[in-house]
Amino acid sequence: MDYTTSADNVVHGPTGHRMHSDSVAVPTVWSGDDGNMIIWSLMELLKLANMDGQPFNPDDPDSYTLLRDALLAVFAKRSDYPRVYSITSLPTQNIGPITVAEAGEVWIWSASAYFTGYRSPLCGRPIDGHTLTPLASEIDAVGGTLSKTAYAGLWGYALENNLVVASGAWTAGMHKFVDLGGDNFRCPDLRNQFRRYTGTDADTANARTLGSAQTAAFLHHSHAYGTAAIVQSGVGAGVVTGGNSRAGTTEENGGSETRPVNTAFAPRIHV
């Protein structure tokens, strides 16, 4: 394709494109087709951005920032990539998937009976904290009190998944939340817990429910216990007697709890 149709042009050697010459005294001869191509292309961009053209006025910045504003408007409407927002300044209406800068994640619009707004698809997930303090997308899962307003997405997650229990039924170790009334709720306390996926409780044959806690237990077993025979015999007319006694005793072994080899991370929940 030709990059210009002006009469005054030269050929750019490396690319072979024709371009306007800067070696001829101004004014140069500029093709009307070139001018119309540029103007029409810019007008198509303004149309796509739903903006009107206006005459140039050096005293009116709006007249020479049209191209910039049109580009911003067009890219803002594109749906093939998520726009970047701060976790403290999320959109209040659905504009499609967005990128949350502090979380480094794509968040989507969520709408339920308990929460409407942007939140992470991972909201509510227990995660291994690898930093001394929680990241912007995390909270400490240590049974603390949180605001329903500040953490509306997390509180909505708890309600949506039937993870809210009465205060008297809440214990450390379960992935459950408590409505404390007003604007406050309690989050889970997951310290000193190992994860285990839902299935069947081997002791009760009942199904394990999401977020339920379970106490420690040993698999039932037995130990062999030896005995020692005692025999006493005499000589001549002596009487032979016999007996049986325990061979020994078991001894204590182990520590203060039952645990596998492990590495400690901070208990956190994704907001």
Describe the structure concisely for a colleague:
The protein is of the alpha+beta class and 271 residues long.
Give a verbal description of the structure.
It comes from Pandoraea commovens. This is Phage tail protein. The chain is α+β, with helices and mostly antiparallel strands and 271 residues long. Among the domains are: 69 residues, no CATH class; 84 residues, no CATH class. It contains three helices and 15 strands. The two termini are 53 Å apart. The relative contact order is 0.10.
SSE order and pairing:
Blueprint: E1 9-11, E2 18-20, H1 32-48, H2 66-77, E3 83-85, E4 98-100, E5 105-111, E6 116-119, E7 126-129, E8 138-140, E9 145-147, H3 152-160, E10 164-165, E11 177-179, E12 184-186, E13 227-232, E14 241-246, E15 266-270
Helix pairs in contact: 1-2
Main traits of this protein?
four-stranded mixed beta sheet; 271 residues
Low-confidence blocks of residues: none
Give the overall shape, derived from the CA principal axes.
elongated
- How are the strands ordered across the major sheet? 3-4-5-6
The average pLDDT value, as a whole number, equals: 85
Write down the Rg.
Answer: 38 Å
Taken as a percent bin, the fraction of beta residues is 15-25%
Span from first to last CA?
53 Å
The share of residues in helices is 10-25%
Biggest sheet, open or closed, and with what strands and sense? Answer: 4 strands, mixed
E-strand count: 15
Structural class: alpha+beta
Count up the helices. 3
- The arrangement of helices and strands along the chain is EEHHEEEEEEEHEEEEEE
